[in-house]
């Protein structure tokens, strides 16, 4: 690997260990085994490098999560959905560093307009991917409407459960609790029978 790749790998390691705001130029250079000047030469700034590293981590995570959450060949829709939630909650528990970095990314986007546009595209792509997983179909077959409804709602629910899991791991929601709550919300959303 060259200095550029070493810096990217070092930045990923620092993001997972220290987070975005607490990672310094020196931290990255030390993790990469290069001089601090190499960051400016290869990436222009600490922020540019950390942002690229974070998006790469999220891409890697998204690929592995998509494979892990894809329904099993014998699963019916309900079993597949339960298995998805069990997998998501396990991810929150097993990889809190990555999920905290995700939260930090949203905070950074509030201060960096160029990051906000990139993040917006990533969120829309995530909606489409989630709708594809839930619908057991290829992403290019997912309609815009399905991405903006099914994919968006699953992502919103997932994000909320993730925040609760990170803020109080000892009392994190279980898959059973999430599914029971979703059932209750579904009943509330049903129109009242005509009287």
From TrEMBL:
UniProt superkingdom: Bacteria
Name one matching Pfam family. TetR_N
Q: Which UniProt keywords apply?
A: DNA-binding
HTH tetR-type domain span:
1-61
Query: Which Gene3D superfamilies has this protein been placed in?
Result: Tetracycline Repressor, domain 2
* InterPro entries documented for this protein: Homeodomain-like_sf, HTH-type_TetR-like_transc_reg, HTH_TetR, Tet_transcr_reg_TetR-rel_C_sf, TetR_C_31
The DNA-binding region ranges are: 24-43
Has UniProt tagged this entry with the keyword Nucleotide-binding? no
| Protein's name according to its UniProt entry | TetR/AcrR family transcriptional regulator
Q: Which organism is it from?
A: Streptomyces tubbatahanensis
């Amino acid at each position: 690997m060259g200095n550029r790749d070493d810096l990217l790998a070092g930045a990923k390691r620092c993001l997972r260990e220290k987070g975005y705001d607490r990672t310094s130029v020196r931290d990255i250079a030390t993790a990469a085994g290069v001089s601090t000047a190499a960051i400016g030469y290869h990436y222009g700034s600490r922020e540019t490098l950390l942002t690229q590293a974070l998006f790469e981590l999220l891409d890697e995570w998204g690929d592995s999560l998509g494979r892990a959450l894809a329904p099993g060949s014998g699963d019916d829709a309900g079993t597949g959905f339960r298995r998805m939630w069990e997998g998501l909650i396990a991810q929150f528990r097993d990889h809190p560093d990555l999920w905290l970095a995700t939260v930090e990314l949203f905070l950074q986007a509030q201060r960096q307009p160029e990051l906000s546009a990139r993040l917006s595209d990533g969120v829309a792509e995530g909606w489409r991917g989630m709708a594809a997983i839930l619908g057991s179909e290829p992403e290019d077959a997912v309609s815009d409407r399905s991405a903006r409804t099914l994919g968006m709602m699953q992502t919103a629910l997932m994000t909320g459960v993730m925040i609760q899991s990170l803020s109080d791991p000892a009392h994190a929601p279980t898959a059973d609790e999430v599914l029971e709550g979703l059932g209750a919300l579904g009943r509330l959303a049903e129109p009242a029978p005509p009287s």
